[in-house]
Write a structure and sequence with these properties.
Length: 346
């Protein structure tokens, strides 16, 4: 339960020698102050009785005002804490001041949609799944920013670890999305900085060891006999081409057009960072890229069979499904190459 007192903040005395009257809220050793509408001189304040002395000309009116605000503050604190036992002093302060708490999910949905509008489809998909996971955790209930306290997020971390079997870095990625949303809401002045739980939380990560295919393993995937017209064959070609093209991201491979290729090099602007890049292709990458060359191909045509005849304005939406398909392809290839199970994690 929050502790509520009326105090005179003598540390805020103005040039006229008057200090502000305020309500002090303390919960879990965190103090917040709600300033009232009056200032008085320190010698006019009865610290023991928490009242204005009779020496002030308007002592009766101010004391009645103080009593009313104190009762309102206690009532607000009880109401807020009965709805949310984890409510912090920032949430109680907002309620006393009459400022409505901001709902989290509507704001988070708008924030995530900006990734899609800016063409960051990978970030959009990841952030969207993070928000959906939280929705499922609260069973579709409405939650406000001030309800996402440190204790709430710690309990959610435990849920992800124990129930969902998420690892440390997966939990970190989820929390990082929430932190970005909170920071953005603070910058937009939608919520006060003091209710941001990430001011008090340190996110944990752990080092992981990346697994890489050896040249012999890559050759085995490349030489696997697949039906030429099947999509799994095109996915395999994308995977192998990306390996020989310096580990080019799938978002960049899928967007390659013939005008990005001069017969030896590909010159592109990286989709994620907008950085110009030029790559000299080795022989095997050239063989794969020329496999898709047609007599009627124009410079503006996509090289990848996956995006053949697709209008550019639809490409980003198609990515949302195509991004997942090579994952399924790796699993199918693993079944064909039983001695190469670690491809699943690469």
């Amino acid at each position: 339960m929050a502790t509520i007192k009326i105090i005179l903040r003598t540390s805020k005395i103005n040039s006229a020698g008057e200090a502000p009257l305020c309500i002090r809220l303390i919960k879990n050793r965190v103090a917040k102050f709600v300033f009232l509408d009056y200032r008085i001189r320190p010698e006019q304040w009865d610290e023991k009785e928490k009242r204005v002395k009779k020496s002030h000309p308007n002592f009766t009116r101010i004391n009645n005002y103080i009593a009313q605000k104190f009762a309102e503050a206690q009532a607000w604190a009880i109401d807020v804490e009965s709805e949310n036992k984890n409510a912090n002093t920032g949430a109680i302060k907002q309620s006393i001041k009459g400022k409505a708490s901001v709902e989290f999910f509507p704001y988070a949905d708008r924030f995530v949609s900006l990734f899609e509008l800016s063409g960051k489809i990978g970030s959009h998909g990841r952030a969207k799944s993070v928000i959906q996971k939280l929705r499922e955790y609260v069973k579709g209930s409405r939650i406000t920013f001030d309800q996402l306290t440190v204790s709430f997020l710690k309990e959610y971390e435990y849920y992800m670890q124990s129930e969902l079997k998420n690892r440390v870095n997966t939990i970190h990625a989820n929390m990082r999305v929430f932190r970005t949303i909170f920071n953005n809401a603070v910058r937009e002045d939608l919520i006060p900085a003091e209710i941001n739980p990430f001011n008090k939380m340190k996110l944990k990560t752990e080092q992981t060891q990346r697994a890489y295919l050896t040249e012999e393993e890559l050759n085995r995937i490349d030489s696997l006999v697949l039906t030429e017209s099947f999509m799994i064959n095109h996915h395999r070609n994308i995977y192998v081409f990306s390996a020989y093209a310096g580990g080019l991201r799938i978002s960049d491979v899928l967007q390659l057009r013939w005008n990005n290729f001069d017969g030896e090099k590909i010159r592109i602007k990286i989709h994620k960072t907008q950085t110009p890049l030029s790559i000299m292709l080795p022989e095997r990458a050239l063989q794969i890229i020329n496999f898709y060359k047609r007599e009627n191909s124009t410079g503006n045509d996509f090289i990848s069979h996956c995006l053949k005849c697709v209008l550019m304005k639809k490409v980003l939406y198609i990515f949302t499904t195509l991004f997942q398909q090579p994952q399924h392809t790796r699993i199918k290839i693993c079944r064909s190459l039983p001695n190469l199970p670690r491809l699943r994690n690469i």
